[in-house]
Amino acid sequence: SALPPHLASSLLTIVGEFVFVYRVDAAGGTHLEWSNVTFLEWTGRTSEEWQEEMGSWMAFVHAEDRALVFEQYGRANAGERVEFEFRLEAVDGLRWTRFTLQPVPDPAGGDLRVCGATRDLTLHRRADAEARSREQLLRETLDALPIGVWHVAKDGSVLDTNAAGKRMCGGEGLPHAQNSDTYRRFNIRSSATGQPIDPLAGSLRAALTQGVASVDQEITVDLPDGTTHILHSSIFPMHGPDGEVTGAICLNADITNAK
Hints:
- It contains eight helices and eleven strands.
- The protein is 30% helix and 33% strand.
- It is an alpha+beta fold.
- It starts with a helix and ends in a 5-residue tail after the last strand.
- It has helices spanning 5-13, 39-43, 47-54, 66-77, 122-144, 163-168, 180-185, 203-210; strands at 19-24, 30-35, 82-90, 93-104, 112-120, 148-153, 158-161, 189-190, 214-222, 228-239, 245-254.
């Protein structure tokens, strides 16, 4: 059964977002007919204040987004359902919002109505920005380290390498840390015995399959530029929430000059 109008109105008043209906007249003019909260509550100013102070109630839209907003409203006023995001200059600061505009034709052929609803995305946008900032800080920190850092997946593929790690590989990233061709190309061997390290039986394999860490294993590698380097290699398994090994972190410090 249909929801009684007074209940529908009360329900929309508590949704915490701006919900509204406006009419599009034959000349293309728009007229707000209903909203669950006032324009003042939503933006911090009345539409008249925006008109008086800024020249248009649309002035609350961020300057870089106004063309988009006008375009999307034009499409909705022509009968097309649209969804779009933009920034608004609220009294409490910059906010991100998503608009949905749903045209509703009049069965009797009268003026078009457009139902609108917003969703505040500000907290999501801020969280995304903070996450990107943390990722950037972590990347810059890793790249500033004098030791090579490799993030290795459970299958042995290298997911990421910092700047020092790439330098240790002659500018390359290891395509697969358990690939025999990789070990042969770099002639990875034990510094103590001179014997080649078997990628399927070495410390990385133990970390990935058994969760066993190794610290300061001394290895020797030959780089593509013809130089030979001695590394202190440490490998630490990474675990998921269930305790299962998900990969490993490999740390390699170049000690060639210390020898």
